[in-house]
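Possible regression after last week's pipeline update?

I re-ran a chain I had predicted before the update to compare outputs. Posting the input and the new output here so someone can diff against the archived version. Not blocking, just want to make sure nothing changed silently.
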Amino acid sequence: MLAPALRLCILADMFALSRFRHSLLMLLPLLFVLAGCQEDQEHSPAPPALDSLAQIRAAGELVILTRNTPSTYFQERNDAAGFEYDLAMAFARQLGVSLRVETADTIEQLYLQMLINQQPLLAAAGLTADPARQPDVLYSQSYLQVLPQVIYHSKAARPRRPEDLIGKRILVLKDSVHATLLKQLQQQHPELSFDTSDTVESVDLLRMVDEGQIDITLVNSNELAMHQVYFPHIQLAFSLEPALDLQWALRQPRKRSDTSLLDAVNSFLQQSREQGLIDALVERYYGHLDVMGYIGANAFAKHLQQRMPQYESLFRKHAQEFGLDWRFLAAVGYQESHWDPQARSKTGVRGLMMLTQRTADELGVQDRLDPTQSIRGGAKYLAQMLERLPDSIAYPERYWFALAAYNIGLGHLEDARRLTAQAGLDPDSWIDVRSILPRLSQKQWYSQTRYGFARGGEPVHFVNNIRRYYDILSWSTLPASEDSILGGLHTPAIKD
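New output (post-update):
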């Protein structure tokens, strides 16, 4: 016989098993229901994935890949600028989203970034369709046609046909359409040779021709129009046909039938042509523009007599308010607008002191075309530049640094000062920094900086012009009792 304790354990186990079986029977219907729900979920259609355009709208931003070049995207004073940037910004506004810009150093890197990035985006960098990439890349319709042009030094014999390029030192941008065109010419003229580089941009190539470092380069017609004014020794030899179509590029979506973003891009570009946006951007960036404002002495004398009397009291009043020499302020105004309060530039700056909209907003200027507001805003901005410069920069050179910052932005000026120090020169000397500033337009240098490409030659001419105008104003208006900033003054405040 079983011991009583053992019999009790067996009875307890039988009772527990009975309870478990009862619970299991009670749970079976629920398990069947859950299994049915799971089966329904597995066989029910998944919610549709968002197409490319919907993803951009859901994220609230459009991302573009571009390059930091004068014809695509760069910082101008306090604002972003560039043909591709402005066009992409208009597209983002149409979509009702913000714009985020990412840059690539080379064309190859740009395509690589586009292909590995998981989000829908655009590559907007003056591209032309590359058949070798088209299995993975979609191209928009053309938004601008340009001609590839052969550039030579004006003192050399003019090449008039491809065979005239044989024996010349030719350099073009690596992975560019110009390299492709030269390879095609090599098939017809095997003696033709050329080099490529991904450490330069079109503006570098033009400078190298201008300085005689190379004989020939190829750039697009829009790039030549933008830069020719800066390089007096470059000339157009001939153009290559046919014209090239500039296009935006998109990564091939995972679902090949998803054409939502490409359709939206093409529709926008079509509207931009029909409504004049493309023409306006062409005029702004590629139209002939005498950006340095060179004028004859006769024109200055005429404006000094006819325009200056209307605004002299305003220059005096607001210069005194911010501790400036009024002639210094007036000279800046003349360089900017020729003392024309209604002046409007193709780059969007306006008024007598030619303030950008962003700068005007920061300064509290509500109407840039109002001469009183414009002059006061310009005086305040110059005073801010003087104040924000490092204490190590002494007067009177502090004025020239402030003018450079007024023209190009404090960030770019600091980039130039760092490059000056790296070159073993004095970053607090205007003469030294002036010699380095043009490097901001050369890729080998601006690629090392924080703020990237800038028209480094412009502030040099800007400062030189203002100093010349200031000299004339001082000679023509300076009483014996007044000091001038060129006479050795070492404080910013100049009182009449």
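Follow-up from reviewer: compared with the archived run. DSSP finds 19 helices and 13 strands in the chain. Marking as no regression found.
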